Amino acid sequence: MTILPVSIPRGAPVPARSHAHDAGIDLYAAKRVHIEPGEVTVVPTGARVAIPAGHVGIVALRSSLAYGRSLALANGIGVIDAGYRGEIRVALATWEPTPELIDAGERIAQLLIVPIATPAVELVEDLPPSGDGRGTDGFGSSGR
């Protein structure tokens, strides 16, 4: 894939990478919003994209919002399926006791376009062994 078709409202910032080799395409707030403590606020970006088949759009928070302003994606990560053509909206929350303000035109998230595998799901009685000896060992099984 070399081109990602993007549609935005007239006058809105165009989603773009800050540097040529950046993985994420910056997404901008389409309007000014207040984020109240303990509440989830959905921030419109105005951006619509045509993600190609065999790919997924992953929406990740910009690190400056997490570390500098104590904001988080309310759902942890955003998944934009290839067939979706609606506006990308970003659900934000703050864990600070004071409200946060997002200005229109502010960069709020990054969109990563990632190739995916879409295997068919098959129900089985038992899973085949992993081949590496791990088996069902879970949290903390690899040590500190």
Task: Describe the protein's topology.
Blueprint: E1 6-7, E2 25-28, E3 33-35, E4 41-44, E5 48-49, E6 55-61, H1 63-69, E7 71-73, E8 78-80, E9 89-94, E10 100-102, E11 107-115
Antiparallel strand pairs: 1-5, 2-11, 3-10, 4-9, 6-8, 6-11, 7-9
Structure description:
By secondary structure, the protein is mainly beta. The chain has a domain at 22-115: Deoxyuridine 5'-Triphosphate Nucleotidohydrolase, Chain A (Distorted Sandwich), CATH 2.70.40.10. The protein has one helix and eleven strands, in the order E-E-E-E-E-E-H-E-E-E-E-E. It is globular and about 55 Å long.
Name the CATH superfamily classification of the domain at 22-115: Deoxyuridine triphosphatase (dUTPase)
Rounded to an integer in angstroms, the radius of gyration calculated over CA atoms is 19 Å
> What is the first-to-last residue Cα distance?
39 Å
Report the sheet-strand fraction: 25-35%
The strand order across the widest sheet is 2-11-6-8
Q: CATH first level of the domain at 22-115: which class?
A: Mainly Beta
Residue-averaged pLDDT, rounded? 92
Helical content band = under 10%
Structural class: mainly beta
Please state the second-level CATH architecture of the domain at 22-115. Distorted Sandwich
Number of helices: 1
Shape: globular
Domain dUTPase-like: 12-143
Catalytic activity: dUTP + H2O = dUMP + diphosphate + H(+)
GO molecular function: dUTP diphosphatase activity; magnesium ion binding
Family: Belongs to the dUTPase family.
